[in-house]
Amino acid sequence: MSDCIFCKVAAGEIPATLIYEDDHVVAFDDIAPQAPVHSLIIPRAHYRDLADDVPAEVLAALLGAVPRVAAAKGVDASGYRVIINTGEHASQTVKHLHVHLMGGAQMVHGMVTFAEGE
Ligand code: AMP
Ligand code: ZN
């Protein structure tokens, strides 16, 4: 998709701090990190989100890259959290499927904060 920011990152048209890449996926640091380590893993091909008929081999490649990226970022031993925001209630902002990998400091137990009034 020509107007998709993550398609442009995957194509090398927008600069990113690349961590890992293979035939199916590209991993890079989030531009606005919300944790000491905050990286994103995306498929090279464009899928809107998890519900966009993503082939099993692409899903496997996305999750298979997680421990590799964690090791490259030095959080494999300390642990990390993986988040895939999907759709409106999850506040997905970039409509190209992506896996957040976050770590580098102790998180509280429980992973969901709701907007006020919801
Ligand atoms: P989400 O809210 O799950 O859609 O997350 C989108 C993420 O993409 C946010 O954490 C943004 O900071 C991040 N982001 C947006 N543009 C870029 C970019 N050009 N390079 C790296 N990360 C980006
Ligand atoms: Zn895209």
Question: What's the short version?
Answer:
This protein has 118 residues and is of the alpha+beta class. The chain has helices spanning 5-10, 56-73, and strands spanning 18-21, 25-29, 37-43, 80-83, 99-103. The structure holds adenosine monophosphate and zinc ion (ZN).
How does this model look, in words?
- By secondary structure, the protein is of the alpha+beta class.
- The chain has one domain (5-103): HIT-like (HIT family, subunit A, 2-Layer Sandwich).
- Helix content is 20%, strand content 21%.
- The chain has two helices and five strands, in the order αβββαββ.
- It has a five-stranded antiparallel β-sheet, with helices on one face.
- It is globular.
- It starts with a helix and ends in a 15-residue tail after the last strand.
- The protein binds adenosine monophosphate (AMP) and zinc ion (ZN).
- Residues 1, 4, 6-7, 46, 96 line the site of zinc ion.
Mean pLDDT: 95
Radius of gyration: 14 Å
Bound molecules: adenosine monophosphate, zinc ion
Strand order across the largest sheet: 1-2-3-5-4
Summarize the main sheet: 5 strands, antiparallel
Strand tally: 5
Head-to-tail CA distance between termini? 33 Å
Count of helical regions: 2
The computed structural class is alpha+beta
Provide the β-strand percentage band. Answer: 15-25%
- Helical amount: 10-25%
Per CATH, the architecture is 2-Layer Sandwich
Question: How many domains is the backbone divided into?
Answer: 1
The rough form would be described as globular
The CATH superfamily is HIT-like
- Broad CATH class: Alpha Beta
Order of helices and strands: HEEEHEE
